[in-house]
């Protein structure tokens, strides 16, 4: 399965803040969930995680067949078995 890990999506809150140099910027807030994009074919066990955003934050190279998935957490995504974590990384 080809997948794109987005993780947490941040969106502007509409509140403007000012940094130490006096430059205004939009406050960003985290959207709920842990987000992954993929392409067909999709394993049936992932059907329950499909979401259809009206304006996706990211898609595969402008493709309109990107499937957006939303999990409650990264742990829920990892529990699906598509991504593994190397606990002992030696540099």
What are the salient characteristics of this protein?
6 strands, mainly beta, two-stranded antiparallel sheet, single chain
| Strand fraction | 35-45%
Count of separate DSSP helical elements: 1
What integer value in Å does the Rg equal? 17 Å
Major sheet characteristics = 4 strands, antiparallel
The multimeric state of the shown protein is single chain
Helix percent reads under 10%
State the shape.
globular
The rounded distance between the terminal residues' Cα atoms is 28 Å
Spans of at least 5 consecutive residues with low confidence: none
Give the ordered list of helices and strands: EEEEEEH
Number of domains: 1
Provide the spatial order of strands within the biggest beta sheet: 1-4-6-5
- Summing up helix and strand content along with how strands pair, one would put the structural category as mainly beta
Mean model confidence by pLDDT: 91
Number of strands: 6
What does this structure look like?
With 91 residues, this protein is mainly beta. The protein has one domain. The protein is 5% helix and 36% strand. The chain has one helix spanning 74-78, and strands at 3-7, 10-18, 24-30, 34-38, 50-51, 67-71. A hairpin with a 5-residue loop joins strand 2 (10-18) and strand 3.
Topology:
Blueprint: E1 3-7, E2 10-18, E3 24-30, E4 34-38, E5 50-51, E6 67-71, H1 74-78
Quick recap:
This protein has 91 residues and is mainly beta. The chain is 5% helix and 36% strand.
């Amino acid at each position: 399965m080809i997948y794109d890990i987005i993780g947490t999506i941040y969106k502007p809150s509409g509140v403007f803040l000012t940094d130490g140099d006096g430059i205004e910027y939009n406050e960003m807030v985290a959207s709920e969930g842990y987000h992954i994009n993929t392409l067909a074919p999709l394993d049936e066990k992932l059907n329950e995680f499909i979401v259809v955003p009206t304006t996706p934050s990211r898609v595969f190279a402008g493709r309109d067949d990107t499937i957006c998935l939303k999990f409650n957490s990264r742990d829920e995504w990892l529990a699906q078995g598509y991504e593994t974590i190397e606990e002992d990384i030696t540099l």
